[in-house]
Design brief:
Among the domains are: 64 residues, SH3 type barrels; 153 residues, L,D-transpeptidase catalytic domain-like (Beta Barrel). The chain contains 10 helices and 15 strands. By secondary structure, the protein is of the alpha+beta class.
Length: 378
């Protein structure tokens, strides 16, 4: 009986072992087929997801960049476009201005206002004065001096009396009666005097002497250089030209490489601040043409003396130069050689001088003489 039980036990044990072995082989078969189908759809999905977002994101960016750049278009020479800290004119929020043709990189245009970066802050201008292409330049101030040609009308009366030479004209009317029909009955004798009228028309050109008198209007003082003045606004990078109490034009400028603050010593890269005058003119300048500025002035010299930068003898030399309207010495610790010159206003690139575009320098050269007042503000 014991042997039968043991036999059944071993039989049951072998069946259990065979069952377990069969299950283990089934697991191996299933797992061997699972990895193969899964990688294929995963890779296909990834390719679809990567390719779709690439193309649409680049196109809009290129379109936006083309529309960012705008240019200021004004109506008359000397007009300016106000720059404001908010898109409204109801508040005292003006912080500067732009001139005709100036480039503006617009951030956004909304409700008729264009936002852009102005001196490291977001400001606004009216979008009505912005165009996509740089507009042609407005006629320079040759039209504004038209009020001054009024004196040209005054000299004309002086030219009217000059027709004292015009009395020669009455002689020509005397020639016309000569061929009167009353004397025509004797045409045989009068053909001889006929050459004389041919000669007198040669005298009739005497009215051509009027052009000799016409030069009297030529002294038309279209520009009164004695009444010109220049105002420079460093923070706004603008230069104003005035003549006879009228604003002739507003122009962009470039300053020294370190424009913030007043100039106080040599090679500091700063543009001076204060009241000066044109002390020299140079049409052979390395920077197109230039007009020297009377830096240092008396205030600069006194402050430098109190700081121990220059001596009393140097102060005396500066005072004598200023009192005589000449160029102060530039060989002191204060430096010198400050001027208004050409070669471009696009950036702050000078050693302390004021740079403008060459076309602007031509205008300043015509209006300003030695002694013209120059006031430089912060």
């Amino acid at each position: 009986m014991v042997i039968i039980i043991k036999g059944k036990f071993y039989l049951l044990l072998t069946l259990i072992m065979l069952f377990l072995i069969g299950c283990g082989k089934g697991d191996d078969i299933e797992t061997s087929f699972i990895p193969s189908p899964t990688p294929i759809p995963i890779e296909d999905n990834k390719e679809d997801e990567i390719e779709v977002p690439v193309t649409p994101t680049e196109a809009p960016e290129e379109e936006r960049e083309e529309n960012l750049v705008k240019y200021v278009k004004l109506n008359e020479f000397g007009d300016t476009l106000n720059v404001r800290t908010a898109p409204t004119t109801k508040e005292n929020n003006r912080v500067g201005f732009l001139v005709h043709g100036e480039k503006v990189e617009v951030i956004e245009i909304k409700d008729g206002w264009a936002s852009f970066m102005y001196h490291n802050r977001v400001c606004y201008v009216s979008a009505d004065y912005l165009v996509d292409e740089r507009p042609p330049a407005i006629e320079p101030p040759q039209a504004t001096p038209t009020p001054t040609p009024e004196p040209t009308e005054a000299p004309e009366p002086t030219a009217v009396p000059t027709p004292t030479q015009v009395p020669e004209r009455p002689e020509t009317p005397e020639l016309t009666p000569t061929p009167t029909p009353t004397q025509q009955p004797t045409p045989t004798e009068k053909p001889k005097p006929t050459p004389t009228p041919t000669e007198k028309p040669q005298n009739t050109p005497t009215p051509t002497e009027k052009p000799e008198a016409s030069p009297t209007p030529s002294p038309s003082p279209s520009i009164n250089k004695a009444s010109s003045s220049i105002r420079v606004f460093k923070n706004e990078r603008k230069l104003e030209l005035w003549n006879d109490g009228k604003l002739i034009g507003v122009y962009s400028i470039g300053l020294g490489s370190s424009p913030e603050g007043d100039k106080s010593k040599k090679n500091d890269g700063k543009t001076p601040e204060g009241k000066y005058y044109i002390s020299s003119r140079n049409d052979q300048s390395d920077y197109y043409i230039s007009m020297g500025i009377s830096y240092p002035n008396l205030e600069d010299a006194v402050e430098a003396l109190s700081n121990g930068l220059i001596t009393e003898d140097e102060v005396t030399a500066i005072i004598k130069a200023v009192e005589s309207g000449k160029q102060p010495p530039s060989n002191t610790a204060l430096g010198g050689g400050i001027a208004i010159h050409g070669n471009g206003s696009g950036s702050d690139w000078t050693n302390g001088s004021i740079a403008v575009d060459d076309e602007v320098m031509d205008v300043l050269w015509d209006y300003c003489k030695i002694g013209t007042e120059v006031t430089i503000y912060k």
